[in-house]
Amino acid sequence: MGGAKLQQDVGLKREEVMLILNRMFHSVSQEVPGHVTVEAPKETCSLMFRLLERSESRTHLTQSDT
């Protein structure tokens, strides 16, 4: 495999990510009351998927150039 790049495709469903983020933000809100908004998990999930989509589109562009 000398120097070959391995790419692992991991499929994440938005619902699964939201569930995990809700747990994380709920846990933080228990530790630090008043510092987490109700919208935080939804906004974070949306941002994560936008970044993933942007990254994937760049990867496809780069791979098509080779």
General description of the model:
By secondary structure, the protein is mostly helical. The chain has one domain (14-65). The chain has two helices and no strands. The longest helix has 26 residues, at 40-65. The two termini are 19 Å apart.
Characterize this entry briefly.
This protein is mainly α and 66 residues long.
What would the keywords be for this entry?
66 residues; mainly alpha; 0% strand; disordered N terminus
Helix content: 55-70%
The major beta sheet can be summarized as: none
Measured distance between first and last alpha carbons? 19 Å
| Alpha carbon gyration radius | 17 Å
Overall, the morphology is: elongated
Total of helices: 2
**Roughly what is the average pLDDT, rounded to an integer?**
80
Number of discrete domains: 1
Structural class: mainly alpha
Number of beta strands: 0
- Uncertain residue segments: 1-7
- Tell me the strand percentage band: under 5%
The succession of helices and strands, N to C, reads HH
Fold blueprint:
Elements: H1 14-31, H2 40-65
Helix pairs in contact: 1-2
